[in-house]
Design a protein that fits this description.
The protein has helices spanning 9-39, 47-50, 53-70, 81-97, 104-132, 135-165, 179-202, 211-219, 223-232, 239-269, 279-302, 305-312, 315-333, 339-356, 359-365, 373-380, 382-401, 409-424, 431-437. The chain contains 19 helices and no strands. α13 (315-333) packs antiparallel against α14.
Length: 438
């Protein structure tokens, strides 16, 4: 197999730019959906189950999109780019619809559409790095994605607060979403289309090595073969993927706890209110956006530092240390009652987030067969969504039966999970390290 050419920094930047737009929309969803659900009458103990759209759509959509993107080729649009654009178009519609849903059941339905569209666009971006970059540049490729994710997420998370400071109304009546939130979601719809468009129209893809054989294989593929390949491949996962699955379980269970319960936790512990229609609750919602901006902003500082640390130590040790910082930060949210101290907690969480977005993929790709990168990256998403699915089903009963209806304790549980994730990294085999040592 011919070695892929090294790309310049700006080539890597442009091929990753679309991820910034996807994360802009995703960050708006994470920072504001609990707030929207509660305004529309959602009970706090049921928030986790309302969010279950994310893990379920990820579980179904990403491996299917990965499978078909591996088998797609168009001489003008390439392999992954058609999926980038289709997902962005659908996501923009959902972002406009979410704050205008009017009732809880409609908002939940829009969340299903939104998560599906994010998954359609997001999964091929992960495989894109493996398609375009040689092994020695992949850590930099994922670091660049992570950096751009940080830019999009910081701006999106802070947008309701920024709009409030500029005089846009942040008040919410019964079943009424604040204007700040509405305008933020509209901006997200524009951002995702523009950013994904930059990548789609500025980046070229490599054609299959044997285009005729590729066409013949695709032509002879039957529907039953598709389902067998998608789900039968689960039994053929590389050992490294199975080991990383444990790390991913603890990591993503922890972040699901925070995403779902940060708003009611901050509203109760820091702002002293449970009244979803009060000004204090809306202020708490804006401050959660600021907190999320801080943790999402950490990739801007650490994204390009992590590859250097990994080179001096190892990718495994780097990831373990970052998860330990996240464990301290997330657990501390349970104890904090000052809104500015929360920002310090978010620094630790952001260090873990930076590593979660890049290091597992950098470790994984070296263990995957080149022709099935998209598929296996999609399958790897199972180990992101399964822990969230379990969390969605389990957190309600846990809060009711173990935490005496105190949802704030879920942040402490998240911190414990991140610490377990840090310990489990020790049992992962990094194939690139093995090759380097032989």
């Amino acid at each position: 197999m011919e070695k892929k050419p090294r790309l310049s920094f700006w080539d890597i930047w442009m091929m990753s730019f679309g991820f910034m737009g996807i994360q802009f929309g995703f960050a708006l969803q994470l920072a504001n959906t609990s707030r929207i659900f509660q305004i529309f009458g959602g009970e706090v103990e049921n928030l986790a189950i309302y969010y279950i759209a994310g893990p379920i759509t990820g579980l179904v959509v990403q491996p299917i999109i990965g499978y078909f993107s591996d088998r797609t080729w168009h001489p003008k649009w390439g392999r992954r780019r058609p999926f980038f654009m289709a997902g962005a178009l659908l996501a923009s519609v959902a972002l406009v619809a979410m704050p205008n849903a009017g009732v809880l059941w409609a908002a939940i339905g829009v969340l299903w559409i939104m998560d599906t569209s994010f998954n359609v666009a997001m999964e091929p971006f992960r495989a894109f790095v493996g398609d375009k970059l040689p092994s020695e540049q992949r850590t930099m490729g994922y670091a660049t994605q992570t950096f751009l994710i940080g830019i999009g997420a910081v701006i999106a998370s802070m947008l309701p607060y920024i709009l409030t400071e500029f005089g846009v109304s942040n008040e919410a009546g019964e079943n009424e979403i604040p204007t700040t939130v509405k305008y933020s979601f509209y901006a997200g719809a524009v951002a995702i289309l523009l950013a994904v468009g930059v990548t789609v129209f500025s980046t070229k893809e490599y054609p299959p090595e044997d285009l005729e054989a590729f066409k013949e294989e695709k032509k002879n593929t039957k529907l039953l073969d598709v389902f067998y390949d998608i789900f039968g491949g689960l039994l053929k996962m590389p050992k490294t993927m199975v080991q990383l699955a444990v790390v991913q379980f603890f990591s993503w269970f922890a972040f699901y706890c925070m995403w779902v319960y940060a708003t009611p936790t901050v509203a109760e512990n820091v702002f002293g209110t449970k009244d979803v229609n009060s000004d204090l609750f809306q202020e708490a919602g804006n401050w959660v956006g600021n907190c999320f901006a801080v943790y999402n902003g950490m990739p801007l500082i650490f994204a390009f530092l992590l590859p250097l640390v990994a080179r001096w130590t190892s990718r495994k040790l780097t990831h373990a240390i970052c998860l330990a910082f996240g464990a301290i930060g997330m657990a501390s949210v349970f104890f904090v009652t000052d809104k500015y101290m929360l920002l310090l907690s978010m620094v630790g969480i952001g260090i873990a987030w930076t590593s979660i977005l890049s290091m597992p993929y950098a470790i994984l790709v070296g263990a995957l067969p080149e022709k099935r990168l998209g598929y296996f990256v999609g399958v790897f998403n199972f180990f992101i969504v399964i822990p969230q699915l379990i969390a969605g089903l389990a957190l309600g009963p846990i809060i009711k039966n173990l935490f005496s209806n105190d949802a704030t304790m879920t942040l402490l549980l998240g911190g414990i999970c991140l610490l377990l994730g840090a310990f489990s990294v020790a049992f992962v085999t990094d194939q690139d390290d093995v090759v380097a040592q032989t």
